[in-house]
Amino acid sequence: MTPDFTFSIKSIRFDEDYRPADGTRLTTNFANLARGENRKQNLRNALRMIDNRFNSLALWDNPDGDRYGVELDIVSVDLDIDGSGNAFPAIEVLKTTILDRKADARIEGLVGNNFSSYVRDYDFSVRLPEYNRGQTGFGIPDDFGDLHGKLFKSFVSSDAYTARFGKLPVICLSVSHNKIYRQTANRHPVLGFEYQPNESSLTEQYFRKMGLRVRYFMPPESAAPLAFYFFGDLLNDYSNLELIGTIATMETFQKIYRPEIYNANSAAGECYRPSLEHQDHSLTRIVYDRQERSQLAVEQGKFAEDHFIKPHRAVLDAWSARFAA
Predict the structure, then answer these.
(1) How far is residue 191's CA from residue 245's CA, in Å, rounded to a whole number?
(2) Which of 16, 245, 252, 311 has the most other CB atoms within 10 Å of its CB?
(3) Is residue 130, in this structure, part of any structural domain at all?
(4) Dihedral (Cα; 242, 247, 248, 250), 10-degree rounding
(5) Whether pLDDT at 183 is above 60
(6) Does 1 reside within a domain?
(7) pTM score, whole prediction
């Protein structure tokens, strides 16, 4: 008999006083900003960028462009696999809350936005390179992402999730830099023009195993499309303010981490090929070490292998088989 996994949720405010907890993945966008001697200024600047971007999109009844603010909470999900109380830090996402200063109201935003997972680090930074070591061509294991996808779907359907959040998550990521995206005629008032890629990416396939579909939109005054991963109906299940909260938050992170794409000095055209080699871009005043971030992904993938995958492989395999059934 395989055990039922138990999820527990805790949250911490992401503000200029935020410091990463011991269990936080240091490659996470928000944790990466909160390190070093300039951490407080980094955080203050990023939060200001988010508020400014939100107000630039929420134009109605907002003549001075300062009606709204965004509060962010880091939601950490721990997984107890055997009932011992020794939980593994499974997932981290962001939750937005919108402050309407004119109405003196707090509006629930979306959960998801950013997405962090030690098991995903293991899959992409440990398992996939090991699988391809010594091979002449690039290959993907048949069950690649299966366990991670089942863990995520199990969390979203858990009592812990449904008791805490009223809507299903939306995750917003960068476009792939080795695909071509073509603009369609479909245009949403907040999400902007929809784009379609020339082929599916490994990230799309990985998130599909999590139960998520993807659509690509370039919001007004953006430089490039964003990838929105979601359940259900992205355009009708969420309000404009909820979507704006996600756009403002994640576009800000992408401007910092991928300025070649999201802080480019010219916007994507009808046919768009993203490139991290693009030189015509501007830098924010927030600096980070992209090489260190890649190295940390490998370290954190090995952490997942040593503390989660290997010690519990038999239990995980049995649970995974039962989940599929």
Answers:
(1) 11
(2) 245
(3) yes
(4) 120
(5) yes
(6) no
(7) 0.93
Domain that holds residue 137: 6-324
Given this model, what pLDDT does residue 219 score? 97
If pLDDT is split at 50, 70 and 90, which confidence band does 98 have?
Answer: very high
Terminal-to-terminal C-alpha distance of the chain: 14
Beta pairing, strands 170-174 & 105-117: parallel
Q: Give the span between the Cα atoms of 309 and 303, in whole angstroms.
A: 9
Q: Give the residue from 190, 256, 182 showing the smallest Cα distance to 221.
A: 190
Q: How far apart are CA 117 and CA 166, in angstroms?
A: 22
Which of these, 90, 89, 107, lies nearest to 98 by C-alpha position? 107
Per the domain annotation, does 56 fall within a domain?
yes
Domains contained in the chain, number: 1
φ and ψ at residue 276, rounded to 5 degrees? -80, 0
Question: Would 287 be classed as within a structural domain?
Answer: yes
Q: Which of 23, 26, 25, 159 is nearest to 87 (CA)?
A: 23
Close Cβ partners of 113 (under 8 Å, ≥ 6 residues apart): 93, 94, 95, 96, 170, 171, 172, 246, 249, 250
Q: What is the 3-state secondary structure (H, E, C) of the chain?
A: CCCCCEEEEEEEEECCCCCCCCCCCCCCHHHHHCCCCCHHHHHHHHHHHHHHHHHHHCCCCCCCCCCEEEEEEEEEEEEECCCCCCCEEEEEEEEEEEEECCCCEEEEEEEEEEEEEHHHHHHHHHHHHHHHCCCCCCCCCCCCCHHHHHHHHHHHCCHHHHHHCCCCCEEEEECCCCCCEEEEEEEECCCEEEEEECCCCHHHHHHHCCCCEEEEEECCCCCCCEEEEECCCCCCCCCHHHHHHHHHHHHHHHHHHCHHHHCECCCCCCEECCCCCCCCECCCCCCCCHHHHHHHHHHHHHHHHHHHHCCCHHHHHHHHHHHHC
